[in-house]
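thoughts on my protein:
***
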Amino acid sequence: MPNDPLAALLASGKSPPEIVAAVAADADVIHTPCGEGNLVWRRWGKGKGSPVVLVHGGSGSWTHWIKTIPALKQSREVWAVDMPGLGDSDFPPHPHTPAGCGLPLALGLKSLFPVKGQVQVVAFSFGAHVTSHALLHLKDHARDFTITGCAALGLPQGPGKEFPREMENMSEAERMGVHRDLLEILMFKEPSRIDPLAVYLQSENVGKARFRSRPFARSDEIRRNLMEIDIPVKAVWGGNDQTAWPSIEARFDVLREFHPELVTRTVPDAGHWVMYEQPAAYNAALAEMLAI
């Protein structure tokens, strides 16, 4: 994979919306049922290699993977889904919980990838929570499950900081400042790496988010679900992930409890949104995981 898959676009002077449009331009858009509407999937590189599904994090969309897709699609068929109630996807059926979101994801995966062992699933943060519920329905249908930066492992949460919020009377600059501050608190290790594209993606994704994932982060649902998931589990974490309190190794230990086969990679000098902050290192680590 190239070291920086978006280098040419980022250096071209294109605006953030133009960059998103350029990455999305060669994607096929597919719908599967979700509640009273649809789950929205995007596919790049049809037939190029065995399929990989990317599942984004809370208050996000497929654009969480904007620096992974251009590299990965060179050798693989890449799918990115907008989770229920997020991005362009409709709300899940009741109950509005990670388990409720997991069912339409499972049904979509089963219908789009009918052959057992055909698809590999990679999930980020809250996406791993929802995917763990989907895999309970899928049993051993998927080939493996790679987790990046999840909570819901039953570990104590760190002290954290209060998240800034948009106010009705804010100017556009003030509104963008709120989103930049949130990225600094939660998503990045190094604030200087927060560029206009990252702020734009955060603003757009939060603006579309109807499903609120934060209340579920303190649960141990992923840990309990892993007890019943029979496929291999792998993990890639940012070495300075602010959400990985008390430590990344403590999180790996929980994942190993029911999956001693766990293979791990830690990407140095990266926060929670590791695939954006250190794309070359993350993409290399992910390529290793997918090849195992």
The chain is about 35% helix and 15% strand. The radius of gyration is 18 Å. Residues 49 and 87 are 26 Å apart (CA to CA). The chain has a mean pLDDT of 94.
